[in-house]
Amino acid sequence: MTELTEFGELTEFGEFGEFGELTEFGEFGEFGELTEFGELENGFFNQIPTTNYQPPITNYPFNMSAVLEAIKPIEEFLAMPDNELDESIQAAKEALGPRVVILGHHYQREDVVKHADLSGDSYQLSVLASQTDAEYIVFCGVHFMAESADILGKPEQTVILPDMGAGCSMADMATIDQVEEAWAQLEEIGVVGGGNTVAPITYMNSSAAIKAFCGRHEGVVCT
User: Fold this and answer.
1) HSE-up of 133 (CA within 13 Å, CB side)?
2) DSSP label at residue 171
3) How far apart (Å, rounded) are the C-alpha atoms in residues 114 and 161?
4) Rounded CA gap, 42 and 32, in Å?
5) Which of 40, 53, 82, 108 gives 48 a disulfide partner, CB atoms 3.0 to 4.6 angstroms apart?
6) To 10 degrees, the CA torsion angle through 36, 42, 43, 49?
7) pLDDT band at 6, cuts 50/70/90?
8) How far apart are CA 97 and CA 51, in angstroms?
9) CA–CA distances in Å: residue 21 to residues 30, 43, 93
10) 79 or 25: whose pLDDT is higher?
11) How many Cβ atoms sit within 10 Å of the Cβ of residue 121?
């Protein structure tokens, strides 16, 4: 038996409405499926490690089995003993040679930094990586660092952030929406505009969107 409501059809499996189907397994909508494994958008994971990354699945609708198969090796690496993991990383570095450069921020653990080709602070590493001929830049750091490397890198270089969940509490203190709203309020009360010169300043530990905002308004990024 089913029950019809103004929102669609309610069944034992969930609710059907204009936005898709809601079930215990997630929500199906025009943008993909939300499950315990993450969010799929247009047939692939939306949290991809780089803007130039080509997802393994590009046809829509997506093949969930293929997605799970694609991420299975990651789980296997996490379960590897340290010595096997070290050997695997070294073998990959030798196979790729100069095509890849690994950046290790000096806040990283020793078991990560020991595999890095370059180590230092975020801006320094981004500059150094851009001066290499590496096709792939693996940034062992947080999100804003990988963004900086992507901005400063060559067009043909691909930046990879191993953990897309690696964030910075300072960078998360302000979103671009909050900054734009604050700027609009300053315009409303006459602080910005009308002949006044106001320069927005952001710390290096901020998102690329906020850095771009500062650039558009003749501001600066400081370290």
Assistant:
1) 3
2) G
3) 17
4) 6
5) 53
6) -70
7) very low
8) 23
9) 10, 17, 45
10) 79
11) 14
Hey, what amino acid is at 112? V
- What confidence category does residue 163 fall into, taking pLDDT thresholds of 50, 70 and 90? confident
Q: Is the dihedral of CA 120, 126, 130, 134 positive or negative?
A: positive
Which tokens is 208 given?
A: 């690329």
Task: Tell me which long-range contacts 102-110 makes (C-beta under 8 A, separation of at least 24).
Answer: 102/138, 102/140, 103/128, 103/129, 103/137, 103/138, 103/139, 103/140, 103/141, 103/149, 104/140, 104/141, 105/139, 105/140, 105/141, 105/142, 105/145, 107/141, 108/140, 108/141
Q: Does residue 96 contact residue 136 with C-beta atoms inside 8 Å?
A: yes
Taking the C-alpha atoms of residue 76 and residue 69, their distance in angstroms, rounded to an integer, is 11
Interval 85-142: pLDDT, tens: 999 999 999 999 999 999 999 889 999 999 999 999 999 999 999 999 999 999 999 9
User: Which residues lie across from 28 on neighbouring strands?
Assistant: 21, 33
